[in-house]
Automatic annotation (TrEMBL):
Alphabetical keyword list: Glycosyltransferase, Transferase
Species of origin: Escherichia coli ISC7
GO molecular function, one term: glycosyltransferase activity
Entry EC number(s): 2.4.1.-
UniProt-recorded name of the protein: Lipopolysaccharide heptosyltransferase III
Amino acid sequence: MLLTTPVISSLKKNYPDAKIDVLLYQDTIPILSENPEINALYGIKNKKAKASEKNCQLFSSHQGITCQ
């Protein structure tokens, strides 16, 4: 997760108006919670969740998609 910080900084430097959202495990949210370059953090409860469940959690917050 710590290696993500330089990537986020580089994105903001090159795209200053970009809104950066991060999908991560809930127990790692504190690592990035104070980063001012991040617009929103979305935590996944279960590390064993299927990729489709993780994607649904992320996209439902942006597109009004309902997960079933």
